[in-house]
Amino acid sequence: MPPTIPTPQRDGVCWPTAQQESLLHAALDAGQDALSAWRAWSASVAIETLDPGSQGILSLAYANLRRLEANDALLTKCKGLYRLTWYENQRRKHTLGQIATALQDAGVPVLVLKGMALIVHYYRDYGRRPMHDVDLLTPTEDAPRVLALLGARGWAPPARIPDPLPRPVYDMRHSLGLTGAAGASLDLHWHVLRQCCAPGDDAAFWEAAVPLNLNGIPARSLCPADQVLHICVHGIAWNPVPSFRWIADAVTVLRATGETFDWPRLVAQTRQRRLAPWVLSALEYLNRAFDVTVPGDVLETLHAIPLSRADLLEFDAYTRPPTLLRDLTRYWFLYRRMTPAPRPPWGFPRFLKYSWFLRRTSQMPPYVARHVAKRVRAHLERRSSRAK
To answer: Which domains does the chain have, with CATH numbers?
Structure first.
């Protein structure tokens, strides 16, 4: 019997509670079904103590329900949130357009990831989908030059990050967060996925990329199948602040593309990148909980992909509450993915050093000590919160 994919822990992960699922149905369903879901959800919550994951769905729920002329006090509050989301996303679009123009003028191709690409291609309404930052992918070989160009425009990484980054970092990390003027946030990627940072891992993404227009500024984004792959892998992960926005994103892409969606590509990419536990878990949930029809042969093919115990241990390390052992397990599997055997004994410590943005190996013990202390504090805070 093949090994069973472990179910990600619900507390703090990516699956919604029954109450949160009602809000998703209010945001994604049509007609009376959406209205009924909204009424059931709004009668069971206090807006003042609403969890962050649900807050991120309210503007989408408002945009869906306003067409039904559903009027109540809570929905009126959501109208202000929708307008704020629209305004902030317009600012982010303007910022992203400036960055894309500067990089392309310097001969660097750009590919827009996550929220902005989803808004332009699928949501088609800047008020529906909140974002905290903008995400941009550049080729790995251009990343050092891109960081220098962005630095000249006022974008800076956190203070502890070495400047310039050691060259091995680009082979061991997939992105770096930058802060610009007035607190604007940019996540610069040189790889699409954290699990796929080996040489050549991004070639297929670039080759299948589709045009994206940022108010007249040409760029590219992932094709629909790669977009869903990215949504599933990024979404199925434990997070101290549960975010189930990935569900709305995936449903929106799949409904927008309909029968044209390239299921064979999604299966092929999943198999090639050894990401079946993530994609299968996500698709089975969407197929069960929402009006998203995943072809039966797709699920059968994904189920038939051989999985080792190591594959399942890796998935488990991403989808359960973090501990030092699980963190190191996750890093070990990242190291295995990008380092062919035989692996030298010093290879993993070196990988950790660059993954943690450290300059010297001697910095590792105090870094681990701070990391453990942070995890202990977070664990105690979660226990205290549950006790209340």
So the answer is: 18-309 (3.30.460.40), 324-387 (no CATH)
